[in-house]
Design goal:
154 residues; Alkylhydroperoxidase AhpD family core domain-containing protein; mainly alpha; CMD-like; 8 helices; AhpD-like
């Protein structure tokens, strides 16, 4: 199976989509959720969805924002590591549940939502939900069209 993109990135083919995506990004990042939490949520959802382009860009963006290698390396096993705060764990649990909607009959159980609500206010929860949905949006576009992670040398 070829790893080449099936088509150019749809946002490049439909430039009006870029404006909508930029508005979603701005809304999610303006509600007070710490930037590193949004970076971790994006990266974890992208790992689950197998979106190589988003995993690559997400890890690089998180590193640029000051995220440590130790936490990035452990993200897929966040439950079994001591590296994440309770608020980050709540956001990651919400991201996993909202990304794996079909895995259980109660897609986002009350205990997952309630734990997130203990750490984030209503606007912050709205931003997290919007950011998780936006990440899944990107993941599905990139996976469907086989957008590859860029090759980085050196």
């Amino acid at each position: 199976m070829a790893l080449d993109a099936r088509i150019q990135n749809p946002a490049a083919l439909l430039p009006d989509a870029v404006q909508a995506v930029n508005l979603l990004y701005k809304a999610a990042h303006s509600a007070g959720v710490p930037g590193n939490t949004l970076e971790l949520v994006h990266l974890r959802a992208s790992q689950i969805n197998g979106c190589s382009a988003c995993v690559d860009s997400g890890a690089r963006s998180a590193r640029k924002a000051g995220e440590t290698e130790e936490r990035l390396f452990a993200l897929a096993a966040w439950r079994e590591t001591p590296y994440f705060t309770d608020a980050e764990r709540a956001a990651l649990a919400l991201a996993e549940a909202a990304t794996r909607l079909a895995d259980r009959s109660d897609a986002v159980p009350d205990e997952v939502w309630d734990e997130a609500a203990r750490h984030f206010g209503e606007k912050e929860l709205a931003a997290l939900v919007l950011w998780i949905a936006t990440t899944n949006f990107f993941n599905r576009i990139n996976a469907t069209t086989r957008q590859p992670a860029p090759q980085h040398w050196g």
